[in-house]
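Hi V.,

You were right to ask for the full record rather than a summary. Here it is.
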Amino acid sequence: MKFSVCLLVLISSLLAFCQQPVTQPADALNSLSFMKGDWAGKQEFNTPDRPAMTDDATDRIEMGIAGKYLCETLSTTLSGRKPTDTRHFISFDRQSGKYTAWWFNDTSSHPTELTGDLTGKKLVLLSNSSGPGPVMRATYESPSENKLTFLLEMKSGESWTRLFLTTYSKKAAATQP
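Predicted structure:
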């Protein structure tokens, strides 16, 4: 009888523990604080055998969704076209120890999923090789306090081809009256 009661208490405790909400390691997302802010800059496209193409780009990065994601809203104004509309959500998977990201944009009906690692102020994410389309590598890096770069590359055989490099400067914070 005592064994049955102890077993029941153990099972109840285990079930109660399993129902607790999963929390993201705050340190992991706080390590991406160098990315947060309102950014403006230029996106330089790789255009072999064609004239250089550089366009205006903006990026707003902030914590969102109960502090579980770094939410990014990007836009590039291409000459003669309406601005692009892109959303990136970056989180941290404590089970794998990797950063995870889901990218949504106005040219695709499905998100791109990526995983990667942070070294200092450099986050490198790779798309899943089993997913649709080519393997992509995205690198966010902060070379100084008010600068952020975003490099997007595509795997081509065993090498990487640069698609574009965006160099941002942090916008000055609006003053409150």
